[in-house]
Specification:
Helices cover 35% and strands 14% of the residues. By secondary structure, the chain is an alpha+beta fold. β7 (152-155) and β8 form a beta hairpin. Bound molecules: zinc ion.
Length: 293
């Protein structure tokens, strides 16, 4: 059982790591943990998370009222409170702005492709909660749609949020999301992103039990009808993972440069985007230039 003083020290350490890894700049980000059934320990407003001391933390009740502390609670306290309300199993919440994952959040690209086995067994998928003004009640509302089924999510045009059974569990999920985002970015820059088959995704989901991983919801059995998780009609109840049936398919076509095999016809891929080969793109540009003359 963690004592209050050890939890204060743990928040300081998590804040230090987030700042050191560039997940936050200036006073960004916030961290909280349950002290007991009625109280939370939380980072204060307007401090750099890299240079906190244990005495800076605030204690609040589950409605966000300050019980103890010289400073005011985090400006994102409402978002943390919503998570604790929706997820009785969660004991810690971490919010940061890791740059690569936040880049995906700005581009509106969820991290939901079946690419890395570890991510599929732990987080499943990382959806994007729709944009909401930070520190207002809009943000907890946006988070509510996904939090029952996900331990990590991107916040559109803002950052990322992770939760866990304990503080370091929540923090490591933030590391996983940023790591996953970096790998996805590199694969896409290289022009090829091989994705795992739906059969393999099902197999990996089976490993959750074997490794004692407590996922808040299963991976959705069928490919998404609505690609962006479609909780417009309600809260997400499973984790949408983009994985083709049958295996061996790719979501992103390999770029064919030079005299490679005949190019495939431009096609709408699983995510609805149309991708051209290098040769097709060159031909289109040449044609456009000709018609300008
Ligand atoms: Zn933020």
């Amino acid at each position: 059982m963690s004592t209050e003083s050890s939890l204060r020290a743990d928040i300081v350490e998590v804040g230090r790591r987030m700042y050191a890894r560039g997940y936050t700049a200036s006073n960004d980000g916030n961290i909280s943990v349950r002290l007991d059934a009625a109280r939370l320990l939380m980072t204060p407003k307007s401090v750099c998370k890299g240079f906190m001391t244990p005495d800076m933390m605030c204690i609040t009740d589950l409605d966000g009222r300050k019980i103890q502390g010289d400073r005011d609670p985090s400006s994102e306290a409402l978002m943390h409170l919503e998570v604790y309300r929706q997820r009785p199993d969660v004991n810690a919440v971490v919010h940061a702005h890791p740059p690569t994952a936040t880049g995906f959040a700005v581009a509106g690209i969820p991290l939901d492709r079946a690419v890395l086995a570890e991510v599929l067994t732990t987080l499943g998928s990382v959806p994007i909660a729709e944009y909401a003004t930070p520190s207002t009640s809009e943000l907890p509302e946006a988070v509510r749609k996904y939090i029952k089924a996900h331990d990590g999510m991107l916040l559109a045009n803002h950052g990322a949020l992770t939760v866990g059974l304990d503080l370091f569990g929540a923090y490591y999920k933030m590391e996983t999301i940023e790591h996953f985002a970096k790998i996805s970015l590199v694969a896409r820059m290289l022009g090829r992103e091989n994705v795992l088959s739906r059969e393999e995704v099902t197999r990996l989901q089976g490993l959750r039990g074997a490794y004692g991983i407590k996922a808040p919801a299963p991976i959705c059995p069928e490919p998404a009808a609505a690609p962006d998780a479609g909780p417009a009609s309600g809260d997400a109840t499973c984790q949408i993972v983009q994985a083709p049936a049958g295996g061996g398919q790719r979501l992103v076509l390999e770029l064919t440069r030079g005299g490679a095999a005949p190019s495939p016809k431009p096609s709408a891929e699983a995510d609805g985007e149309i991708r051209l080969t290098y040769r097709e793109l060159s031909a289109l540009i040449e044609e456009a230039i000709r018609s300008l003359r």
